[in-house]
Known about the structure:
Helix content: 40-55%
Number of helices: 8
Order of helices and strands: HHHHHHHH
Largest sheet: none
Shape: elongated
Number of domains: 2
CATH architecture of the largest domain: Orthogonal Bundle
Structural class: mainly alpha
Amino acid sequence: MSRWSWFVVGMVIGVVALVAGGYGFVRAGGVSMETTARPLPFERQVAHLALRASIGNAAAVKDPLALDDDNMLAGAQIYKTHCAVCHGLPGQPPSVISQGMFPPPPQLLQPNAMVTDDPEGVTYWKVTHGIRLSGMPGFGRTLSETQRWQVTMFVGHADELAPAVKDELAREPARPAPAGSTPQ
Length: 184
């Protein structure tokens, strides 16, 4: 056999050994699926890299709705119904549900965690598609395009809420609509 043949055989054996070793590591419990487990080395970096690649050029997409009190109020109502259980309400501690999630969902209406500087197209992408393995569901099939833009607008302008919108957030939370109900 030539040197190149041995090189190719060595590479194939190396790849097979790597795959078999990875499989054995996962099969032996080396990758904990507990939400309380510490992240694996490079887990956050790989997740952020994959998310940025998936989002692509969504940052260039602009909200087609008018920035007005009606859309902000509708966005607040949608947020309370579908998002607050994980992402919280102003001045409220994180919910029991959010405390058990990994990674922990950002408390979007707390002053230190607002996403008002995120491009609206990125927020809309996350609302529409969700984020795999994070607990963030995609609402592309359950909320209308208008509703997804309204909640995007609300989150993007959470640092400048009108009194009527703040009052809506302070009211008793709405209950999520049952699965299969028609979005408005």
